[in-house]
Amino acid sequence: MRAVIHLGAAAVLASVLAAAVPARAETIQVVIEKLVFSPAEISAHVGDTIEWVNKDPLAHTATVKGGWEVMIPARKTVSQKLETAEAVDFYCRFHPNMTGRLKVEAR
Known about the structure:
With 107 residues, the protein is α/β, with parallel strands linked by helices. The protein has one helix at 2-20, and strands at residues 27-32, 37-38, 41-45, 49-54, 60-63, 69-72, 77-81, 86-91, 99-105. The strands form 3 sheets. A 4-stranded mixed β-sheet has the order 2-1-4-7, with no helix packed on it.
């Protein structure tokens, strides 16, 4: 009977410790190739970073109308740290048919 109590206490302690450790930020890669964002639907958390990897020979942007814009030069990678919980549609200002959706949630 004692072993069960100790195992139960250990399980509670492990879950408390796991909750006390902050969630680790992630890096999410979005590849731009042949005028397409991939993935086009991105789910992330505040504190995560998006790496916009442009494999095209043309410059692109990730633009939110009335919001932010990331300039992504040809064949370059640009990082963007996500600081606000939001759900937004984005597009390339130079190629408006290139679209995507970003959903950022609080941790």
